[in-house]
Design goal:
Chain lengths: 307, 281
């Protein structure tokens, strides 16, 4: 292991810095693919948001901020924006809060640990839209697992609850499913953080008489800072972008009752063919993600420099 | 690793830990067990009153009948073709980039890595209108090549970061020795470095394959012909206006989920490293 890392360090000193031109045959295709798939659509999105566009998608000249004005005149926007903030913050908060003890749990030594970890990978590996559809079935009015269990435990008498169609519950159900699919990734990132803590530090603290809670609070938790930060930021972006869960479960409905800015932009563009304001919202969504990405790059640069 | 070999002694506290862990595992896998059980029920049992968890008659024939209920074979073909091609494209593009970045310093290296890292953070969802218009511009609406290129683009970052880490861990001396013996740099890469970095390559391959297999938003937007849809959007075929054929829907999702879960579990060790590359070390 030491020989390998020494080798890796040596090359940095051995070869002089090359020009970009000599690098292009190697990294050029990657740059091209990124330009084509990520940069082009981003520029196109911004361009269209400043253009008058018909519902059929044909362009009719520069429109200034007309599309943005139309968007902000939409009476539903404010509620949807507030719901989006609620959605992102509650899903990410719940995910991280639940994943912390779960990571600690599956880091313990017990028989069958491998299988528990495998079980926890399943929601991460399975298609999110398929998982959402399974939850749709489990939350079904009469035969769903959820109401069935409530009935059998005697917690639900009389009318069963229609979790997805009842406006009092549907948004919470979406949050629940989003937390369910976000926990596995988050738990594994925190688990990796826990595993990277050197054993001797923990043993030293135990020798000094620290209890397991003290060890966790005083040593492990502070050392998990980076993992937590990364997991939180990646989750922020994923949950903000989360389209399949809402689309599969409620389509943002009834009406716009469970829409976030992400599904609302999609709905305007591809269901209502209201392209103009949709592109404006698309640019705002994109800007928000860009902002989180910049924060992420900053944070990770700090950790990279430490390493 | 060594710690696992020590004989496990049960104590009440350890038993409590183990039991809570088993319950957590069961909780996360339960919806999929429910899916499998429902996929084996006859249609009449779905809404039976009272409902039962286990099927009363185990209709394994659902797994045969489903192929004639919807164009499952077409969906699977689309998913396999798109996922395999996207994976190949990612490999072709990421291996040289990752190798060069690991072995050389050059002007713009940091900028390139930053660009790659930034793309990893974007999902196609945010850019979907732009993607739709670009695909239309190239006349590729309702085609697989559009899905292949878009999926490859968004999964490139994972492969580049993961592989550059693997390449950097191969001592340059081995490679140089091969070159002294008459190998070209490309031959040295192919014969010496790639075999050593095989775990990284396998991880990149499986990750891209599974991510493309599960991709939903782009497929939903770009593909309109039912017969060209991949499985991720094709399953909506079973959701009718008034009735959902849950038993066939879940037969299909089971066929789609089980293989990728097995693939994903096989790369468990490297997943976190690739996803948080450049940050958690």
């Amino acid at each position: 292991m030491t020989a390998i890392s020494m080798g890796a360090n040596k090359i940095k000193n051995r070869r002089p810095a090359n020009s970009v031109i000599s690098a292009l045959p190697w990294i050029g295709p990657a740059i091209l693919l990124i330009l084509l798939v990520v940069v082009w659509p981003a520029i196109e999105l911004i361009r269209i948001s400043l253009t008058k566009i018909t519902s059929a998608g044909s362009l009719e000249g520069f429109n200034g901020l007309g599309n943005y004005r139309l968007l902000f005149e939409n009476p539903d926007l404010k509620t949807i924006a507030i719901r989006t903030v609620t959605w992102v913050l509650s899903v990410v908060f719940l995910t991280v809060i639940i994943s912390l003890p779960l990571a600690q749990l599956i880091n313990q030594n017990f028989p069958g640990r491998k299988f528990v970890r495998w079980a926890m990978i399943v929601p991460w590996a399975a298609s999110v839209v398929m998982t959402s559809i399974i939850w749709k079935w489990m939350l079904e009015l009469t035969s769903g697992e959820f109401n069935l269990t409530l009935r059998q435990l005697g917690l639900q008498n009389g009318q069963p609850v229609d979790w997805l169609r009842d406006p009092r519950y549907s948004f919470f159900v979406l949050i629940w499913v989003a937390v369910f699919v976000s926990i596995p990734f988050t738990t594994f990132v925190i688990l990796a953080g826990l595993q990277s803590i050197p054993h001797d530090i923990i043993e030293a603290a135990q020798v000094d008489g620290a209890g397991s809670w003290q060890v966790y609070r005083g040593i492990k938790f502070p050392l998990l800072r980076n993992s937590l930060l990364i997991a939180t930021i990646i989750n922020l972006i994923n949950v903000f972008n989360s389209f399949p869960i809402i689309w599969a479960l409620t389509r943002g409905g009834p009406g716009y009752n469970t829409d976030t800015t992400t599904t609302f932009a999609y709905k305007m563009a591809f269901v209502e063919y209201n392209m103009g304001p949709s592109t404006a919202l698309g640019v705002i969504n994109f800007g928000f993600i860009m902002l989180i990405v910049l924060i992420y790059l900053r944070v990770t640069k700090a950790t990279r420099d430490q390493a | 690793m060594k710690k696992d070999k020590v004989k496990f002694v049960w104590t009440p506290k350890k038993a409590a830990t183990a039991i809570s862990a088993y319950m957590v595992g069961l909780f996360f896998i339960y919806p999929y067990i429910n899916m499998l059980l429902t996929s084996l029920k006859p249609h009449g049992e779905l809404y039976a009153n009272p409902t039962t968890r286990l099927p009363k008659s185990w209709n394994f024939s659902n797994y045969l009948d489903v192929w004639s209920k919807a164009p499952i074979a077409d969906f699977l073909t689309a998913s396999v073709v798109v996922s395999v091609c996207a994976t190949l494209l990612v490999l072709i593009v990421s291996v040289p980039a990752a190798y060069y970045v690991a072995r050389n310093r050059f002007k713009g290296r940091a900028a390139f890595l930053l660009l790659v890292l930034a793309t990893q953070m974007f999902s196609p969802t945010a850019l979907i209108i732009g993607i739709f218009r670009e695909v239309k511009f190239f006349g590729l609406l309702d085609t697989w090549p559009a899905l292949i290129v878009v999926n490859a683009g968004f999964n490139l970052a994972f492969a580049v970061w993961l592989l550059s880490g693997f390449f950097a861990s191969v001592p340059v001396e081995i490679e140089e020795a091969a070159m002294v013996d008459g190998c070209t740099r490309f031959q040295a890469l192919r014969r010496i470095v790639l075999p050593v970095t095989l775990p990284g390559l396998v991880t990149a391959v499986i990750f891209t394959f599974v991510a493309t297999w599960n991709e939903f938003t782009v497929a939903l937007t770009v593909i309109s012909s039912p017969a060209r849809q991949p499985i991720s959007t094709g399953i909506t075929t079973f959701v009718g206006q008034y009735d959902v054929a849950w038993e066939y829907l879940f037969t299909t999702t089971a066929i789609a989920i089980v293989p990728v879960v097995i693939l994903f579990i096989s790369i468990e060790k490297y997943l976190v490293g690739g996803l948080t590359a450049g940050s958690v070390k």
